[in-house]
Write a structure and sequence with these properties.
Its EC number is 5.3.1.1. InterPro entries: Aldolase_TIM (IPR013785), TIM_sf (IPR035990), TrioseP_Isoase_bac/euk (IPR022896), Triosephosphate_isomerase (IPR000652), Triosephosphate_isomerase_AS (IPR020861). By secondary structure, the protein is of the alpha/beta class. It contains eleven helices and eight strands. Strand 2, helix 2 and strand 3 form a beta-alpha-beta unit.
């Protein structure tokens, strides 16, 4: 059975004071949730604070992005090896905001996915469609293209060391949420796409839901057979909400 993962994506939020309170609150409540894996992904400046606050706990941590290159003259970028030095397990790649606002296409995202693995990090690969693409009936084509870029560059074995997060872009920060049935349909498609090349890899890969999961919908979403946890945005900034989602993941085991 795949172990659920709940990963908090803090995006560009936080201060020294708020991060201290947030990490303290999550660590204090996490002891009641042993069956689910939990991780947080703060902004780069707070990685050291996160490492110090969570060292010795069951909570993992990661970063929100990395460079396609290992090192060199890339001003403003952060290398995977740098992230790894702060004890990170995970790194988010291809988030819809990176794709939309910073022009990261499928090939760039595939290179970041590969670089993360090369540096000993577990990529959380984000895929998903916009509202216009869903309304046009091309969700499957969009998601297939995003997955295929990784398959073409790295092969199906890459997904043995990668977590996938399905994020319907139309449900991020809009107050909308895919129904459990809508989410399950795309999760099943993702698993099926990988199964075309390896049934074993497909059976093991964890696929998270990343479209405004909240305490009141987490249980229904994670009851679906192909939803293995969540990539949590706004709710990850509130300890009680985040822990409630983690508890739903624990209960789904």
């Amino acid at each position: 059975m795949r172990k659920p993962l709940v990963a908090g994506n803090w995006k560009m939020n936080g201060s020294r004071a708020s991060v201290t309170d947030l990490l303290g609150g999550i660590r204090a409540g996490i002891g009641e949730i042993p069956k689910a894996e939990v991780a947080v992904c703060p902004p780069f400046p707070f990685l050291q604070m996160t490492e110090e606050a969570l060292r010795g706990s069951s909570i993992a941590w990661g970063a929100q992005n990395l460079c396609t290159e290992p090192a060199g003259a890339f001003t403003g970028e952060v290398a995977g090896s740098m992230i790894r030095e702060f004890g990170c397990t995970y790194v988010i790649v291809g988030h819809s905001e990176r794709r939309e606002y910073y022009g990261e296409d499928n090939q760039v995202v595939a290179r970041k996915e590969a670089m993360a693995r090369e540096r000993g990090l577990v990529p959380i690969l984000c895929v998903g469609e916009t509202l216009a693409q869903r309304e046009a009936g091309i969700t499957s084509e969009v998601v297939a293209d995003q997955l295929d870029a990784v398959l073409e560059l790295s092969g199906v074995s890459a997904f043995g060391k990668t977590v996938i997060a399905y994020e319907p872009v139309w449900a991020i920060g809009t107050g909308l949420t895919a129904t459990p049935e809508q989410a399950q349909e795309v999760h099943a498609f993702i698993r099926g796409r990988i199964a075309e090349q390896s049934a074993d890899v497909a059976a093991g890969v964890r696929i998270l839901y990343g479209g405004s999961m909240k305490p009141d919908n987490a249980a229904d979403l994670m009851a679906q057979p192909d939803i293995d946890g969540g990539l949590i945005g706004g709710a990850s900034l509130k300890p009680n909400d985040f822990l409630a989602i983690c508890a739903a993941a624990h209960a789904s085991c």
